[in-house]
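Customer escalation, tier 2.

The customer says the design service returned an amino acid string that "doesn't look like it belongs to this structure." They asked us to rerun it and document both sides in this ticket. The original structure tokens are below, unchanged.
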């Protein structure tokens, strides 16, 4: 049985210059998923279709796991601010951390405990509201643990899915660089010069 999630329609038009061309990005979007995201397990994540799109992106372990040598918190926060801004400004979507572009688990996943007893999930839930302006209401973080037998997720590791809504408070800019981002053709793009207008929808 399919799970339908209805959202109040919203329309935001962004006009910008990117790589010497003008883009006009409009959206009226809802989300339709065959299985509620809060019930996803390891098999569900690994069974997702190859490739990425405007509403889904995979990120390797180095873009979140602060226990990996050479991974800087500033870099992780910069990336997080970009993705939250882009997805919230362009209809919402999901970022799956700990998974390579080809859909395989990267490096065994993300270390669950990153600072003492603080989990990566707790850390994400704490920092996510602070990396964009305005705060995105309704961001959820889901932890996908290793299955009981035959898991490709490493011991004491997990995958993390950041679920970003189609924000009614858009447009949002990353506080990390004071730039606006959008999703376009499975990429998050920075708007170099931007004029943002909110257009109410009846």
């Amino acid at each position: 049985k399919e799970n339908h999630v209805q959202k109040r329609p919203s329309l935001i038009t962004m006009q910008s210059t990117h790589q010497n061309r003008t883009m006009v990005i409009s959206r009226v979007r809802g989300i339709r998923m065959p299985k509620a995201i809060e019930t996803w397990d390891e098999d569900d994540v690994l069974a997702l279709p190859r490739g990425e799109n405007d509403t889904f992106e995979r990120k390797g372990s180095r873009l979140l796991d602060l226990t990996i040598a050479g991974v800087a918190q500033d870099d992780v926060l910069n990336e997080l601010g970009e993705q939250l801004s882009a997805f919230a400004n362009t209809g919402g979507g999901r970022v799956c951390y700990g998974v390579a572009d080809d859909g395989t688990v990267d490096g065994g996943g993300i270390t669950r405990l990153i600072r003492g007893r603080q989990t990566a999930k707790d850390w994400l839930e704490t920092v996510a509201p602070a990396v964009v302006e305005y705060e995105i209401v309704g961001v959820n973080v889901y932890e996908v643990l290793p299955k009981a037998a035959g898991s490709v997720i490493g011991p004491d590791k997990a995958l993390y899915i950041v679920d970003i809504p189609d924000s009614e408070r858009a447009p949002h800019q990353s506080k990390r660089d004071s730039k606006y981002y959008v999703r376009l053709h499975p990429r998050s793009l920075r708007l170099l010069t931007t004029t943002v207008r909110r257009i109410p929808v009846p």
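Tier 2 assessment: The sequence is consistent with the input. The CA atoms of residues 64 and 76 lie 6 Å apart. The chain has a mean pLDDT of 81. Sent an explanation to the customer and offered a walkthrough call.
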